[in-house]
Amino acid sequence: MTGEIAGLKVRVDVPLGRLTTFKIGGPAAILVTPENEDALRRAMTPIRDSGIPVLILGNGSNLLVSDAGFPGLVLRVGSALGGVEPEGPDRLRIGAGTLWSRVLRFVMAEGWTGLEFGAGIPGTLGGAIATNAGTRGGETADSLVSIRGVGPDGEVREIARTDLPFVYRRCELPEGYVVTSTLFAAGREDPEKVAETVRGYQAERRRDQPEREPSAGCVFKNPPGTSAGKLIDQAGLKGSAVGGAIVSEVHGNFIINRGEATADDVLRLIDQVRAGVRREFGVELELEVRRWGFGD
Questions:
Q1: What is the pLDDT of residue 5?
Q2: d(CA 240, CA 287)
Q3: What is the distance between the alpha carbons of residues 39 and 120, in angstroms, rounded to a whole number?
């Protein structure tokens, strides 16, 4: 890939750590950022035909990048593919590169209800689709109507929610498909009531989760009938550390980068936490955080 396709920003050897909420990770061999859906559409066939491994990046939350980086092409779906617009009386069209924080500002100001659960999700709407992101108030799949995106052949396709295989913290999107926008069902409500609900969720997050330190969000999926954070806490693993990585004292399911953590530090700490929970409770914790550049 070169920069010959209008509407694409192409860079090489770009450190990914600064593009993730964990602030950890080596460089991407190539970073491509489309300025609009048409540029992405025209780029997809050349990208596919190049044979280069491709990964999709949003806000970089829920992600651990290896210290060696990723030896392929990272396609960044950023704010250029963002925005929130009503589509009819009970639908919101939201760009895949839109941060949840921007969505919440819109619904609070305009009085739309149904998406308040997104308070506390640090990523973009595209990332929320791929991971079925959620909070105590709900998850992305609950009010989704459809997604729009570009396939590896450059064709734009709208896919209904009913045709998407959502499970807990995952959605298996068609191979090579890049989400460009989402359509959600939403109702109308007094803006102050919407804001009150959002502020309530935000207060819960500030109380229960670390906000100031770099992290990837929850590291492990919750096992059936309990929470990973509770098991980690009961196993006495809060405050455990390896190098620059430490298990948060606020929430056991968060690993914090306290300044100079490496991906290797995090992986060793993950293994330590898993072993402790397995030893105490016989439960095998499953990773929620995605891993890039580790050869698996």
A1: 76
A2: 18
A3: 31
CATH code at 268?
Answer: 3.90.78.10
Query: What CATH number did the domain enclosing 43 receive?
Result: 3.30.43.10
pLDDT digits (tens, 9 = 90+) for 234-256: 999 999 999 999 999 999 999 99
CA distances (Å), origin 161, targets 141, 143, 144, 169, 237: 8, 9, 6, 15, 39
What domain range includes position 61? Answer: 8-79
Q: Beta partners for 249?
A: none
Number of helices (H), then strands (E), belonging to the chain: the values are 6, 21
Alpha-carbon gap, residue 117 to 145, rounded angstroms = 16
CA distances from 86 to 163, 181, 184 (A): 23, 13, 10
Alpha-carbon Rg for the chain in angstroms: 19
- In this structure, are 74 and 87 located in the same domain? no
pLDDT in tens, 54-99: 999 999 999 999 999 999 999 999 999 999 999 999 999 999 999 9
Backbone angles phi, psi at 203, to 5 degrees: -65, -40
Q: What pLDDT does 187 receive?
A: 98
Token duo for residue 211: 């906000």
Give the model's confidence band at 296: pLDDT under 50 very low, under 70 low, under 90 confident, else very high: low
Burial-class residue 46 by CB neighbours within 10 Å (0-12, 13-18, 19+): middle
Question: Do 35 and 100 share a structural domain?
Answer: no
d(CA 146, CA 171): 13
pLDDT, tens only, 99-140: 999 999 999 999 999 999 999 899 999 999 999 999 989 999
What per-residue confidence (pLDDT) applies to 3? 45
Placement of tokens 């105490």 in the chain: 280
Q: Are 74 and 32 in contact (CB under 8 A)?
A: yes
Helix (H) or strand (E) holding 15: strand 8-15
| Inter-residue contact 272 to 243 (CB < 8 Å) | no
